[in-house]
Design brief:
Layout lengths: L1 H5 L14 H12 L2 H9 L5 H29 L3 H9 L5 H34 L10 H20 L2 H29 L2 H6 L10 H16 L2 H5 L5 H34 L9 H7 L3 H30 L5 H16 L1 H5 L2 H30 L24 H17 L3 H7 L2 H24 L1
Membrane topology: Multi-pass membrane protein
GO molecular function, one term: cytosine transmembrane transporter activity
Family: Belongs to the purine-cytosine permease (2.A.39) family.
Length: 455
């Protein structure tokens, strides 16, 4: 009993899976139809409109193929992504992807909370006259906004999985209304032709490959949350197609709005500043008012419902004796603390881009190893009971699959080296090349090892 408790895995049995196609679709639209996606759209405006669109389509489509692959793994096993990672990294070795998942989803929660808190400062300015964040004395409105958002997060996660579904259903309706409203305002002031022909100042231009890496880091972050939700559906096509379609629609839609809104401000003001990608700044400059700020706050909750669920699952995988609900409380409080970091760094944009660099560097190799292991090595069949069994088939050596761990580390180093190659930065980006290389090496080495054992 002690061993089982220590390495226990929460498997959702098929009779208890009731997540519909609409719920799954809404979850992934809501995950991407949020402030962070809007902000990323504004950042890739540095590629120009058409360059940004091409990078968005290429990077997002490839990334969400992996979301479908991980989604099917969740449907097949009934386990979270981090529990599934035990099969490829070892029961103890899965602490590596779990730590990565914990840090990145806490980070994404902090990003969305910070943006929503900025909107809160605008709301407080309208209601009681407090200075807006960015003005003298504006920090108090932002700090109160962070506290309010964190309380709302605690309330939503305490109500369980059903509350997340309700938040997503309400959120997606508000998102549709808000995006249509903003689209009308943007194209009322600036024509599509002007946006399409806008030229990025030479010294601010972003290489296409760098935009691919930025978007890959953003999109791949959702991939390691895939199984956390698809394990709640009992239909294969729901697990595979709903996340892909929903996430792609969400990212194309909201990143497009962030892209065109940022360019429209650059056209009307004559100045391109990536810091203006902040949704609250854009909404304020477009004159959308308090209602827009409230919607920004609510859409932050839809995205963070997914972020916190994934971060909580990572803690639960590392410490199975801590219940998922307690894990969710822990990560929510941790995310609240992390949200204050940009106040000390001085630039939200600098903190955000540094965070994206970290995500792109560590996530790609993990996803590549997991997919190759499940689909090519084990032919889509994992022994579920062994995911929690000491000295079982996924125990490897001392609970760690050292080959997977070593290749993950090599993949991180390879990513950093690839980023230094000028043509990769200019044309392809390092992320997907790195994932291909790690996947090939993992497959070849495992097959050679298995062949030697058979002989």
């Amino acid at each position: 009993m002690e061993t089982k408790d220590r390495y226990a895995v929460d498997i959702v049995p098929t009779p208890h899976r009731h997540m519909s196609y609409w719920d799954m679709f809404a979850t992934w639209v809501g995950a991407n139809a949020n402030n962070g996606t809007w902000f990323v759209g504004g950042i890739i405006a540095a590629c120009g409109f058409w360059g940004g669109i091409r990078a968005l389509i290429v990077a997002s489509s490839i990334s969400y193929i992996f979301l479908s692959l991980i989604g099917y793994m969740g449907y097949k096993t009934g386990a979270t992504t981090m529990a599934i990672s035990r099969a490829s990294f070892g029961i103890r070795g899965s602490i590596v992807p779990s730590l990565v998942n914990l840090t990145q989803f806490v980070g994404w929660t902090a990003v969305n909370t910070f943006i929503a808190a900025t909107s809160m400062s605008y709301i407080l300015h309208s209601l009681i006259g407090w200075p807006i964040y960015g003005q003298a004395g504006g920090n108090k409105g932002l700090i109160l906004g962070i506290v309010i958002m964190s309380v709302l997060h605690l309330i939503s996660i305490s109500a369980g999985q059903r509350s997340i579904q309700i938040i997503e259903r309400i959120g997606i309706i508000l998102v549709i209304i808000f995006v249509l409203w903003e689209s009308i305002v943007v194209f009322r002031d600036v024509s599509f032709s002007q946006i399409g022909h806008w030229q990025v100042p030479t010294h601010q231009k972003m290489p296409f490959g760098a935009a691919i890496d930025t978007l890959a880091a953003f999109n791949l972050a959702w991939v390691t949350a895939g199984a956390d939700f698809t394990r709640f559906t009992n239909k294969k096509h729901v697990a595979i197609t709903a996340p892909f379609i929903g996430a792609d629609i969400g990212v194309f839609w909201f990143a497009f709005i962030g892209l065109v809104a940022t360019i429209s401000i650059a056209i009307t003001s004559g100045i391109y500043d990536a810091n203006n990608s902040d949704p609250s700044t854009i909404a304020n400059r477009l004159g959308l008012g308090m209602i827009a700020m409230i919607v920004i706050v609510l859409t932050s909750m839809t995205a963070n419902a997914v972020n916190l669920q994934a971060a909580g699952s990572a803690v639960n995988n590392m410490f199975p004796r801590i219940s998922l609900k307690k894990s969710l409380w822990i990560v929510t409080i941790l995310a609240t603390i992390v949200t204050f970091i940009p106040l000390f760094i001085g630039s939200f944009l600098d903190a955000f881009t540094a965070f994206l660099d970290y995500v792109g560097m560590v996530l790609g190799p993990i996803i590549s190893i997991m997919c190759v292991d499940f689909y090519l090595i084990h032919k889509q069949e994992y022994h579920i009971a062994s995911l929690s069994k000491r000295n079982g088939r996924y125990w490897y050596r001392g609970g760690v699959h050292w080959l997977a761990f070593g290749l993950w580390l090599a993949g991180v180093i390879a990513y950093l080296l690839l980023r230094q190659v000028s043509w990769i930065e200019a044309y392809t980006g390092a992320t997907f090349i790195d994932m291909i290389l790690v996947g090939i090496v993992y497959y070849v080495v495992i097959r050679v090892t298995l062949n030697k054992e058979e002989n």
